[in-house]
């Protein structure tokens, strides 16, 4: 049950063709759910919640749920890689950017500002495949893949 989810009609890019704004993601650490909710203080500001699901019963636990600084309707698509939520700023501009990242390991948010190309100018979905280490996307009826590489830097 998503007691705090905001499931209503809106102009969100996730809500194409009357589909839900709730998204599932999988990465090396498990299954995740991503959805909009009110911020922690109960203000009308709508934020994106990221929660790792318990694999035994698909329940959410408070200790594995994060209210991010990502605002609803301020991004095009998002995906999870290695416990980090990434958001692309536009789903319908060819030259978009990864404009937001939330790291669940450190509880910090970042602005990576990395280029992201929507080849066919309308990306409806982006998902990470941890086994293959690639992003899969649906872009204006075309399935596209993005090879990704991570460079870890010691602080």
Automatic annotation (TrEMBL):
It is found in: Secreted. InterPro entries: Olfac-like_dom, Olfactomedin-like_domain. Keywords: Secreted. Signal peptide: none annotated. One of its GO terms (biological process) is signal transduction. It comes from the Eukaryota. It holds the Pfam family OLF. One of its GO terms (cellular component) is extracellular space. Residues 1-152 form the Olfactomedin-like domain. Its main location: secreted. Transmembrane segments: none annotated. PROSITE patterns: OLF. This is Olfactomedin-like protein 2B. The gene is OLFML2B.
């Amino acid at each position: 049950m998503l007691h705090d989810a905001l499931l209503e009609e809106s102009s969100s890019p996730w809500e194409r063709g009357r589909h839900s704004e709730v998204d599932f993601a999988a990465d090396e650490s498990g299954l995740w759910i991503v959805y909009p909710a009110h911020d922690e203080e109960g203000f009308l500001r709508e934020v994106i919640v990221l929660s790792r699901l318990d694999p035994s019963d698909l329940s959410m636990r408070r200790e594995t749920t994060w209210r991010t600084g990502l605002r609803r309707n301020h991004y095009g698509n998002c995906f999870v890689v290695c416990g980090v939520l990434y958001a692309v700023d536009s789903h319908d501009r060819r030259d978009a950017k990864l404009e937001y990242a939330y790291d669940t390991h450190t509880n910090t948010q970042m602005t990576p500002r990395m280029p992201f190309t929507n080849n066919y100018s309308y990306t409806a979905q982006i998902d990470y495949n941890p086994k293959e280490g690639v992003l899969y996307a649906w872009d204006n009826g075309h399935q596209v893949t993005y090879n990704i590489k991570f460079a870890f830097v010691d602080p």
